[in-house]
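Morning F.,

Quick status update on the modeling queue. The single chain you submitted on Monday has been processed. Sequence for confirmation:
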Amino acid sequence: MPSRSQENQSPQVTPAIATTPRGDGLIGVFATLADQHAQIAQLFEQLQGQPHRRARLWPELRRQLVSHEHAEVRELYPLLRQFSQTYAMANLHDDEARALDALIHRLDATMLESEHWGTLFDQLVSTVLHHAKDEEEQKIFPAAQEALGEARAVELDVQLRQVQQKLAMAH
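Structure tokens below.
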């Protein structure tokens, strides 16, 4: 259980650029995105089953989810449509991103204190973790890194972070 000081800390949206492969072989933009998935999963844990934390944690979690997903849609996935091995993955991702946006909007339109909000949030957690861990980190990111090359993955990391910062400020 996190201490009160840990509860008040927001995870950084942008860790240092990974120019050497992580244990899973991901570098650059793919390592950054995977690290952000882990940060979002931590926020999910802090919020799930904790209705009294919703008002404080939901805005930060929402900001991170939206800036992360929208930056991917704007910067990464259009590039992946240029390669036959990642084209279908990019299209599937955009469909899932639209579904995620719709779920976030449903949460925003639901009273934070309600049981229904908790049910929708559990659905969001399941959807995001499946998308991030089972699809992106296991399938999409390795194929995309191979298609783009390591140098482009590192270069794209800077671009994506800048877009994320702008989107986070707007949300």
